Amino acid sequence: MDRVTEETRQHGLGHVGFARALVEADAARKLPNIVRIFVPCDESTELKTMAVRLDYQWRPTQCPRCCI
């Protein structure tokens, strides 16, 4: 857990204006710009899908020869 999230959780001060997620990706492919997630529909047990745009703080460089 990052420092800001941990402090908010412990002290209840402020709020985080964005969510963080761990997205596993194939090293030989480009990082996705959008992922689809399942979220609950109101108070029912049904789920709906949402497209979430990803913003990266940093993107690793990729070797043009081996793609890793």
Brief synopsis:
The chain is α+β, with helices and mostly antiparallel strands and 68 residues long. The protein has one helix at 3-11; strands at residues 34-40, 47-53.
Could you please describe the fold and organization of this structure?
- The protein is α+β, with helices and mostly antiparallel strands and 68 residues long.
- The protein has one helix and two strands, in the order H-E-E.
- It has a domain at 23-68.
- A two-stranded antiparallel sheet has the order 1-2.
- The radius of gyration is 17 Å and the shape is flat.
Task: Determine the number of helices (DSSP H or I, runs of at least 4 residues).
Answer: 1
Number of strands: 2
Unreliable spans are none
How large is the share of residues in beta strands? 15-25%
Helicity range of the residues? 10-25%
Strand count, sense and closure of the main sheet? 2 strands, antiparallel
Radius of gyration: 17 Å
Mean pLDDT: 80
- Alpha-carbon distance between the termini? 27 Å
**Strand/helix succession:** HEE
| Anisotropy-based shape | flat
| Coarse structural class | alpha+beta
Spatial order of strands in the largest sheet: 1-2
Name its key features:
flat; two-stranded antiparallel ribbon; alpha+beta
Q: Strands, helices and their partners?
A:
Blueprint: H1 3-11, E1 34-40, E2 47-53
Antiparallel strand pairs: 1-2
